[in-house]
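Structure tokens please, single chain.
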Amino acid sequence: MNMNNNNNNSKSRLKQKQKKMELLLLILYAIGFYTFCIRRSLHLSRDHFSKLHGLRGGWLFPPPRLNDVSDAQWRNFRANLPILTVVFGVFTMLANICRKSFHFRARGMSILWLFLSLIYLSYLHGACIVFILLIASVNFLLVKIFAHAKYFTLLLWIFNLAFLFCNRVYQGYSFSIFGQHWAYLDKFRGTFRWHICFNFVVLRMISFGYDYHWAHRGSCFDQEKHIQRCHVCKSGKICYQILQERNVRINDFTFTTYLSYLVYAPLYIAGPIISFNAFASQLDVPQNHFSIIEVTLYGLRWVFGLSLMELMTHLFYFNAFAASGSWKMLSPMDIFIIGYGVINFMWLKFFLIWRYFRFWSLINGIEAPENMPKCVNNCHDLESFWKSWHASFNKWIVRYMYIPLGGSQRKLLNIWVIFTFVAVWHDLEWKLLSWAWLTCLFFVPEMLVKSAAKAFQAEGALGAFVFRELSAAAGAMTITCLMVANLVGYVIGPSGINWLISRFLSKEGLFVLGFMLMSFYVGTKLMFHISDAKQRMQ
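Here you go.
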């Protein structure tokens, strides 16, 4: 008996040593990979900067280097950071003073935030605020009148999709189409195109409609069962899922609360997306999930992230290569490095934008889901990637699209409907539809492999080893496919697919493809080690 125990202990120690040795080799490879990518990126930026568009005078390093501000979204956000911070600082001070001094609850806070948010929208959109209020009012009436009807959800979707299309096709409409005596209002259209922000308003209008519709049917959410499993709720706090799933009172579905939800200033421009139930609940009782110290640390981490972005855009001109079309002149290896850099730039850009607005919402007592809970370099399958990229949108899709469409029972069909909607919601462009449908094509084999993996039971050490290696290889393929889909959707467009394939099927390109797959295989194995470490800590 003791001999068996000793054998088991020695095998366990040997297994641990092997894992540590593997982890050391993986880390060494990762250090070499990133050293190579950073050095090559620096050379590319230095050698090609004169051919790139969107570079402006920077402020880092003596003498100051050029700064990559070729991305319009990041450029506008960065330029408006000081005024946004002042505006939200004033709004936050007023909101918190009024809540504490006058003991405002849901009704008082909804009126206050509606007033503050309409001031904000008046600056952003000028006279075009009329279009937002008119469409929102018609949607409110539609929900109140038809919420009990069997065909309500179909009517809600048709109404909102119709305006999603029309707003884009007519570029936010012109006042002159309603008569020449209104044409003078076209001179007062504000500083920001209203129909771009309205995409988020559409999601909120649909959320309000569904939450009101379900409030009359009663909730199927098992709150007690959830509290037993949720570590946040066990600690006496309230997590976001309870706020979202728990129906608010019918009396809380008022016009003022509805409008303040649609135009709530901290989340209006970019989200994160929050359900009506969660918003109305927290207007009444502010979130208690995060303490003041935790929110302060959250803000400091955001400042650190901004410093990283400034460093990146001064040293590496990834997005300028994509925006200028200069990647066509590069070798397959350089195309890979630029493509990888673009994805990391996009992740950090959205990370900073979304966390900035979420920070101000948290200070004001409204918790919204974290949009980037996971680093882009720590996702080895499409499902985990989309749960971690614009995560609040993912939660919205699951609640208001995926489950109503049939959930996992029709998963293969649902992903095509959902990703087509996601593409159209972003913009009416063929390259976005190409991105959506490519992602769906890559999703299908992953779902089939996952289904097979669940049925497969690894027996013994050899079986577990083989399963882990195959999973790492599958992860490498998935990350490569994800890169291709994002390059098509955001850089080269559908017309560049044949060019990309021809470049990577050349002699040099096949070597680079092998290097990519090997690097992503190593990355996936590192992700497995990170996941194992987290499980041991729990």
